[in-house]
Amino acid sequence: IKDMDVAAARLAEAVQTAERIAIFGDYDVDGATSSSLLARYFRVVGSDAIIYIPDRIAEGYGPNVPAMTKLARDGAKVIVTVDCGTQAHAALAAAKAEGADVIVCDHHLPGDTLPEAFAIANPNRHDDTSGLGQLAAVGVAFLLCVALNRTLRDTGWFATREEPDLRKWLSIVALGTVADVVPLKGVNRAFVTRGLIGARGA
Fold first, then answer.
1. Nearest CA among 102, 16, 36, 38 for reference residue 65
2. What is the secondary structure of 65-126 as a DSSP string?
3. Mean pLDDT, residues 34-54 taken together
4. What local confidence, expressed as pLDDT, does residue 200 receive?
5. Which one of 100, 169, 201, 202 is CB 3.0 to 4.6 Å from 72, fit for a cystine?
6. Mean pLDDT of 192-197
7. How far apart are CA 70 and CA 23, in angstroms?
């Protein structure tokens, strides 16, 4: 997925230097599972990321200027938006103006232009050639964990730490995938099949 390696490299740097990471999630199941997955991963690799879920009535869908500004002013150096952000031009610009790098982890269709962000990992970008446009956001978030895990491994982060087994979180990926009613084909079918096996064994 385009920008995935860029996103993973920035997040690896944040983990290794103890920069504060914030996760801005959507309020539906796909957004909640995406947020939970990333938070669990960051916690295991040594970064206690904070989660922000907007109020559905008061704030509406997606990143908004006041929330993104507050996250940055409260010390978040990297903000990861999950299941949202692809069309949030003003909110992402506000976060950047406050010194935060924004990584978009999304699957929604973009507008004519993309917002200015450090990275936009979205298989439905017009310039993405991955062929993974059927993924729910939680599937994109899982692949971000895969890329970040590989990056941290390559830098030696796990030389003195236990490397997480990402398969144990596939039940979360399966839940978000099914709840978002995306086509159960390709990697989605693999996520759900393996996730159901893990859920039965839990």
1. 102
2. HHHHHHHHHTTEEEEEEES--TT-HHHHHHHHHTT-EEEEE--SPP-SSPPP-SEEE-TTST
3. 97
4. 65
5. 100
6. 95
7. 13
> Which amino acid does the sequence have at 86?
T
Residues 6+ apart with CB under 8 A from 187: 132, 135, 139
Grouping H, G, I as helix, E, B as strand and the rest as coil, residue 154 is helix
Q: Answer yes or no: are the C-beta atoms of 93 and 115 closer than 8 Å.
A: yes
Indicate the burial class of 201 (C-beta count within 10 angstroms; 0-12, 13-18, 19 or more): exposed
Q: What mean pLDDT comes out for the span 18-45?
A: 98
Q: What is residue 159's predicted lDDT score, i.e. its pLDDT?
A: 96
Q: Give the residue carrying structure tokens 């904070």.
A: 50
pLDDT at residue 32, as a whole number = 98
Q: Is the pLDDT of residue 69 over 70?
A: yes
Place of tokens 């920069």: 19
> Average pLDDT, stretch 115-130?
98
Tell me the average pLDDT across 70-89: 98
Residue 70: CB partners within 8 Å, gap ≥ 6? none
d(CA 35, CA 37): 5
Give, as one character, the DSSP assignment of residue 166.
Answer: G
pLDDT at 198: 77
